[in-house]
DNA sequence: AGCGTTACGCCCCGAATTCG
DNA sequence: CGAATTCGGGGCGTAACGCT
């Protein structure tokens, strides 16, 4: 089903909106979204912001605690950083990476909405396809009303000023890939720290990769790294290097 | 209390697509 | 073309929660 309004698509969008890479709203999985949609409470993700506890508790499998948690999660999502919101919105070709770039470049949803293709094309890593995808989303009827609804609900985040990445040190200009499970750091944290240290984290191993950081239960990326003769780091080596670079990984 | 559902927090993979 | 990403699919163990 391609129609953006068919039930399956609506639910997909909502689940995506709330999913982990996006706004990370607790309590919104497929099943819950099914109930919400069946009950006619939501027609697009922005409707989440109008849900009320009274309505929620009536749903099967949803008690006071779940309702409260869900509402708290939705409330919290209003203050999510811009890049997360962009991922949540679900514009074609805009995932974590591009969202981050767009957020840093434009700083606010308003600014991005007004951007034309030319402005987008000027940005590194943005080509015609992504540019037109972004522009056509914000000029489409669906996109406009959606953004409008979000704004009404009080969602219009600005991106935090990007932390100035280190300009010297062992990470600068190097590309890292993470694989396996790290112990003390989450992948997200590890990636952030590496970036702050001036390094880059990508998602696939190639000859351009400088080092692969392998945790336990590593996947095929480690094999590829070995095959290509790329340095393999363990978590300790990463932490030591981060410390040396002046980025102290706080224990969580 | 026990059961079923869901979420969470990690993760992997492949196909398709895009950028340069 | 090579490198990198998105996207959508899946997995697994643990924990929280609502219901009966």
TrEMBL record:
GO biological process: DNA repair; DNA replication
UniProt KW Transport keyword: no
Positions of the BRCT domain: 166-252
Keyword NADP included in the entry's annotation: no
Matching InterPro entries: BRCT_dom, BRCT_dom_sf, DisA/LigA_HHH, Hlx-hairpin-Hlx_DNA-bd_motif, RuvA_2-like
Its EC number(s): 6.5.1.2
Keyword annotations from UniProtKB, A to Z: DNA damage, DNA repair, DNA replication, Ligase, Metal-binding, NAD, Zinc
Enzyme class: ligase
A GO term, aspect molecular function: DNA binding
Function of the protein: DNA ligase that catalyzes the formation of phosphodiester linkages between 5'-phosphoryl and 3'-hydroxyl groups in double-stranded DNA using NAD as a coenzyme and as the energy source for the reaction. It is essential for DNA replication and repair of damaged DNA.
Protein name: NAD-dependent DNA ligase LigA
Organism from which the protein derives: Eiseniibacteriota bacterium
Taxonomy of the source species: Bacteria, Candidatus Eiseniibacteriota
